[in-house]
Amino acid sequence: MNKIYVVGIGPGEYEQMTLRAIHALENCDTIVGYTVYVDLVKEHFAGKEFLTTPMRKEVDRCILAFEEAKKGKTVAMICSGDAGVYGMSGLMLELGENYPEVQVEVIPGVTAATGGAAVLGAPLIHDFCLISLSDLLTPWEKIEKRLLLASEADFAICLYNPSSKKRHDYLKKACDLMMQHKSQETVCGIVKNIGREGETYQILTLKELRDTEVDMFTTVFIGNSQTQRIGNAMVTPRGYRHD
Ligand code: SAH
């Protein structure tokens, strides 16, 4: 059978992969992915064939996976976190229309939002919005509108892709927009290298976050109006009464 698993491998470390993801990688012949993710899993799946393509070559990577599956191989296309959160599962299903003989199965993973939330404590426990600051695939005007409206509605907000070489001031711009509706004292958190070597986190105010430089391996959390700092944890109350 021609089969492709689209696998979310979690934030990085083997322990944060689901058993279902591990089984899919054990059962496949070929693992396809962006170089960095292949390097993360390689040592645990010796004996597999590994095929990599560089970043920004997403369509090529998907076609490569389908062509291998067409040859009769069982293929795993890996993505960091969850493949359905700014990942490849959508594109794989779209391109899959051209390969009706190949069956695509999507396997979920721990996304950076929940992986990072656990490092910080419980920042996202109630309603929250996930917004990517990358304007590669989304017009910046739309990102601005989402930041403004999510802030106005008092959502906790989790930001992916908060920075890159070309977009080093986007987080600052995003904080300025959110401060139109959120207090500058709002409790925020940043987590870098979740589940990877060099994992670090910091809890700070929205005003401080505005003047903080982060990189593309960081996920940013902005609390709602109820979010507190409890010791070294960022906690959004769910609203249970403390009787
Ligand atoms: N599919 C991935 C997200 C890809 S978008 C997932 O579900 O997690 C890439 C962005 O995700 C990064 O810029 C960063 O903001 C966040 N991210 C992904 N993995 C991360 C990690 N291990 N540590 C910190 N942030 C991460």
TrEMBL record:
Residues 3-209 form the Tetrapyrrole methylase domain. Its EC number is 2.1.1.131. InterPro entries: 4pyrrol_Mease, 4pyrrol_Methylase_sf, 4pyrrole_Mease_sub1, 4pyrrole_Mease_sub2, Cbl_synth_CobJ/CibH_dom, Precorrin_MeTrfase. Keywords: Cobalamin biosynthesis, Methyltransferase, S-adenosyl-L-methionine, Transferase. Pfam families: TP_methylase (PF00590). It comes from the Bacteria. GO terms for biological process: cobalamin biosynthetic process; methylation. Pathway: Cofactor biosynthesis; adenosylcobalamin biosynthesis. Signal peptide: none annotated. GO terms for molecular function: precorrin-3B C17-methyltransferase activity. It is an enzyme of class 2 (transferase). This is Precorrin-3B C(17)-methyltransferase. It comes from Candidatus Limivivens merdigallinarum.
